[in-house]
Amino acid sequence: MVTRPHEAHPDEFNPWLHVTSLIEKAGELLGLDEGMIRRIVTPERILEVAVPVRMDSGEIDMFTGWRIQHNTSRGPGKGGIRFHPSVNVDEIAALSADMSIKCAVVNIPYGGAKGGVKVDPSNLSHAELERLTRRYAFAISPMIGPDRDIPAPDINTDPQVMSWIMDTVSMLAGHNMPGVVTGKPLAIGGSLGHAGSTSLGVTICTIALLKQLNRSPQGERVVIQGYGKVGAPLIKLLSERGMMIVGLADIHGAIHVPDGIDHEKMALHFSEAKSIMGYPGSEEIHADELFTLPSDIAIPAALGGVITDKVAETMAASLMVEAANGPTTGEGAAVLTSRNIPVVPDVLANAGGVVASYFEWAQDLQGFMWEGELFRQRLEKTMHDAFDYIWERHDQLNVPLRDTALVVGVERIAEATELRGLFP
Ligand code: GLU
Predict the structure, then answer these.
(1) Which of 36, 187, 263, 347 is deepest in the core (most CB within 10 A)?
(2) Of all atoms in ligand 1, which is nearest to the CA of residue 79?
(3) Is the pTM of this model over 0.85?
(4) Same domain, 212 and 295
């Protein structure tokens, strides 16, 4: 079922077709009728915007951006904004659907949305990045708002970018609107605990899965693809719990460190070298070798579509936790299932970020800031409860964790859709 035009080349991995096939499969497992499945699959709103930016040279460059609200039956749209040269409408649509499922899986009162601009921000000066962000925020402003759709950081966007979005929308409205975006700095309505929240959720899911498999975190060897907002704090959190990071990759390449990476030394090295490469005592490897390194746990924490059937066939780890969004292709997932490699899917494993966003938003709406400890306790409980529930249903359904999470997500969206009925 294809419910919107797409640009896919038949041989290319198309994230939109992938996610819709997963939703359809879940809908069929639940016995939903065809009309309901089609309603859940189809994005509610797709906005494409032109983003003209005056460059420092004085010339004007044109960029294209999108904001997509996939499903808002359970609450306002929620999802990040990414700035990346590979962004396209299919990718953003797929990620918006992932957000609908993710928010339903962790049972927070949101629908799913996503946005992005096709741009390589490493080519922009700070001032150009600000102008691009503000023009994009202006262009999508009719669609976003604390009760409608709440953006957040994603790939290559950070608290500074969120501040500019918050400011642009607030200036247009004529009053402060902190609840329009999450992942803000503390000084303007951000929240203690938001930074590193995705990594904390990934850590909780990793330990919970190990526990179910009667394994202890102590000495488990981990390979991580990505040393960004999620990968960097993750190394610290996993190391503190006794795990050893033996392989790491970033955009510059990959390294093997059989004795494990020291997170403090890596942070220091990275702040000077601006890359993980050259970390003292590491062996440089080909990026394709990362997941073949002798290891127990694989964690993709960068871009989508990287765990293909080929990568899955040679993966050395005996379990995988998806910190990135959409890292595994359909074929890759099938190989992992046939090899009995359990996978905590993205919509559960990396949901700590959006749960933290929910807490930040709730504080902004109430105008009442929580203490960091309360934030952390609630985040941990939400993630534990979600994992335990998915595990319980996985036992009953006897399908992989990914399919189980999809079933739970689609079930909750379908319930809300059914209760609300069809307007008019
Ligand atoms: N970008 C994050 C994600 O993909 C967070 C989204 C949010 O907080 O709205 O889950």
Answers:
(1) 347
(2) 9
(3) yes
(4) yes
